[in-house]
Amino acid sequence: MSSSPSVLLVHPPSYSNALLHIPPTSFLVLAITACCLYICGTCVYNLFLSPLAAIPGPWYAAVSDFWLTTHVARLQQCMTIQALFERYGPVVRVGPNKVVFCDLTTMRSVYCVHKFDKSPFYKALLTNNNDHAMTTLPHAEHAARRKAYAPHYNLPHLTQFQPDVNDSVIKVLNILENQQGKTSVSCPELFRHLMVDVISTTVFGSRSGALDNYAMGIRDVLSQAICDFPTRGIVRSFIPTSVWSIVCRLPSETWRRICNSDNTMAEFVRGHIEDTSARMQAAPIDHEKGDRIPLVQRMLQNRVNSAHDSLSVQNIVSECMGHLVAGVDTTTTLLSYLFWELSRRKDIMKHLQAELEEHMADRHVVPDFATLCKMPYLNAFIKEGMRVYGPAPSLLERVVPSTTASKIDDGFDMMGYALPPGTVVGTQAWSMHRDSEVFPSPETFLPERWLSVEGTAGEDERLNRMSQHLMPFGVGSRVCGGQNLAQIVLRVAVAAIACNFDISANSSETNEHTMRIKDAFVIHPATKECKLTFALRKC
Q1: Is 480 among the annotated ligand-binding positions?
Q2: Where exactly are the transmembrane stretches of this chain (predicted)?
Q3: What is the pTM (predicted TM-score) of this model?
Q4: Is residue 221 packed enough to be buried (19+ CB in 10 Å), middle (13-18) or exposed (0-12)?
């Protein structure tokens, strides 16, 4: 009996088994090689093959966002971009997909004509973990939100709140009088409490008591939360959502207070909304045309009359929080810098005081807003303050859409450069306000530049050109809704304080070094402090 021949079966090598025999060091080498090839390929594309490759700018900015991010982290973005404009011209590429410009015609095209949507950058400014008008990216959605509060900020309506603004400013005068000019005052702290009371009045219908707490030396929780919120936003933008809750538990009382600033404001706003809603339900309010209506009441009334989602309670809370943060920080900073200029420019202070004395026989009685607007030097002083120290001078980022009204094809033409859809573009007030062809000696604080010189040809054209370049509140349909309120407060506060006090600074406390501008979307002094002395003027 013969046996069957044995058959040797040979299996092809298994790739999985082969991979198992590759040394770990080889895997590491492969991974590093692949990573390097990807980085090199990306760099080559960004530098030479990208649709943005022809746009002027530093090569290291075109390669990666890292370079600009380092300047953002150092609070130097505005000045860095200004330096790029001075070197490369009015159009500069500052990132693989980001182009900035400094040009009036292009500004109008982007923000006023085409009304490009905002970039995702603004999501770092969420309040109550929810959108509000400023963080709503699509233009159409923002327009729907804006309708709910726009009538509140009409100038005729806001002027009805001037008596309340005057009362709050009088409280500031009393606080300064009690200091008797013997000790310096922290302007950011004092003016923050002023603005919290003012905005609480216009938004909720009553003062929050911030100035009363300040006068008694009691820490005002709401003012502190508003002060902390920008820091929270900056840090939050760099930390993934999954890690944020862990970071908030770090064992530091100050850090936890900063992390909780959003919740602190939300609780304050929600409480006022509930109180206002209860009053409205108990006694329905029938407003006559022209009546003074707090913002919360207006939005709640609109909510009753509308089923639009933008008027949900959560959105009303977020909107009111957004108005608190935006209105308090910006005006506080600008007031601080305005009075610092008065402290070091006695010529400006004397000129301003002389004009104010003509209209303020009683130094504790502030003229109405219409009268304040007729004071040439006061208005020139405030305009120059907004030009040099505009509190929000940073990039206003927008995104090129897939289609534009100017072209059938996709993309957007910017001063001869074709930008593909998705490109982030923007200008900044810092640079628009420092165009030397429009503002000679742009770094010099010179209120007189806003005054017309009689008998000089072309004055109207010169002043009009400067006004077109002035954009301290933004530009276009996304311009700051609260700009009229800021204009009222700035004039009332400057008029009342400058008329009653001589302002000075101890150079060891407050000087050009301590007041160096740092920008984190909004600006602040390098030391976040501005200590000045207010000495009561003799009658």
Answers
A1: yes
A2: 27-48
A3: 0.91
A4: middle
